[in-house]
Design brief:
Largest sheet: none
Distance between the termini: 68 Å
Bound molecules: zinc ion
Strand content: under 5%
Radius of gyration: 17 Å
Structural class: mainly alpha
Order of helices and strands: HHHHH
Helix content: 40-55%
Shape: elongated
Number of helices: 5
């Protein structure tokens, strides 16, 4: 039995990776704030700017100062970004209550879609 095919395990692993990639893919024109809150809801925080980086790479690769800007506002990890940088977007405890992202007007914009809320 030294020739037991590991094929199915490999395939399953690839499938999971692909699925994960797809699940964590920012939606079309989804803003950073909505994306981060959605990912936190699904996958939680790993004490890094994991979702901020993922969004930046996918949506605004030229926004190289994004992480520094988040840190300047007190966002040293994804959940701190949610609570300190975009508090008005993060009032929803339940993902079901989360309104859909209105979308950013221009791809690459790092502004949240509800930036004018309450101001
Ligand atoms: Zn955190
Ligand atoms: Zn949004």
């Amino acid at each position: 039995m030294d020739n037991e095919p590991a094929e199915s395990a490999v395939t399953a692993e690839r499938y999971v990776t692909a699925l994960r990639e797809e699940l964590t893919e920012p939606r079309d024109k989804e803003c950073l704030a909505c994306y981060v809150s959605r990912m936190l809801e699904e996958f939680g925080c790993d004490n890094h700017l994991r979702w901020v980086r993922r969004w930046r790479d996918a949506c605004a690769p030229r926004a190289t100062a994004l992480e520094r800007r988040m840190e300047e506002k007190g966002g040293f990890c994804d959940c701190e970004v949610a609570y300190n940088v975009y508090p008005e977007q993060m009032l929803y405890d339940d993902a079901a209550d989360l309104p859909p992202c209105k979308g950013v007007s221009r791809r690459g914009s790092t502004l949240p879609c509800r930036d004018d809320a309450g101001r």
